[in-house]
Amino acid sequence: MLSVAIITHNEEVNIKDALESVKWADEIVIVDSFSTDKTLGICRLYTDKIYSQEWAGYAEQKNKAVSLASHPWVLVLDADERVTKSLRDEILSIIRNTKDNENYPSPTPLPQGEGARGRVDGYYIPRKNFFLGRWIRHGGWWPDYALRLFRKEKGFFEDREVHESVKLNGETGYLNNPVEHYTYRDIEDYIKRMNTYSTLAARELFKKDRGAGIFDLTLRPLFTFFKMYLLRLGFLDGLYGLILAVLYSVYTFSKYIKLWEMQKTKGRY
Questions:
Q1: Which of 34, 204, 259, 267 can pair with 212 through a Cys bridge, CB separation 3.0 to 4.6 Å?
Q2: Helix (H) or strand (E) holding 202
């Protein structure tokens, strides 16, 4: 008994493929923040569980979608993600073979080498990230585990401005098969999102009374490039790896220069 939870806003380019990849689920719940394109019309072809809510932040929107789910297991999916057939089969195997008083072991050991103990309440799913149509295998982009499948009563999204993640009260396991993530349609799309995400990330740091100094504006962007391109072997992805390392270093600089400006203007963003 599985519910899929998706949040949307003007996702007509992505949403059909996302919904097509999970049409096998028992229920699809959509929380939309008043899209003005064809998003809702496409969603109605796959589900009648569509709700509208003013944008309240990524975590709050996703928590709303999870709260509206009817079934004990919830899979949270972004509009630009696709569930592969192999992942579908793995999820269905877990749902069908798990009962409340039975143990279902982690399909693979945890990255730290520890297996799940007792009943598993949530699963990390590897994300196969694509950039400009190409699967990026290095630079920290693979396997990029995210906790997306969990028992409804056990998990919630932590309240953050950006990079929201599930907090789970229970044991976790890791799945073998990936969700495909088609991020950043082109460089312009990246730059637009970078501007939004860097502002949100700066706000998050500002709320925590973090400061930004010369170290943050110089060495942090350089280390971001060094980490992605060399330490995490981004160079093995060729020109794509170089472009991503440069773009992410620019994102880091943008985040901290905005934080510096917030300090000077007492949070004008």
A1: 259
A2: helix 187-207
Side chain identity at residue 229, one-letter code = Y
> Half-sphere exposure (CA, 13 Å, Cβ side) for 228?
23
- For residue 232, what pLDDT is reported? 98
Residues in contact with 203: Cβ distance below 8 Å, sequence separation at least 6, in sequence order: 161, 262, 267, 269
Alpha-carbon gap, residue 9 to 191, rounded angstroms: 18
Average pLDDT per 10 consecutive residues for the chain, totaling 269 residues? 97 97 98 98 98 96 98 97 98 81 44 51 98 96 97 94 92 97 94 95 93 96 98 98 98 97 78
- Please count the other Cβ atoms lying within 10 Å of the Cβ belonging to residue 165: 12
- In 3D space, the residue among 166, 172, 161, 200 whose CA is nearest the CA of residue 66 turns out to be 166
DSSP structure string for 96-148: HH--TTS----SB--TTS----SSEEEEEE-EEEEETTEE--STT-SS--EEE
Among left, alpha and beta (phi > 0; psi -120 to 50; other), residue 59 is alpha
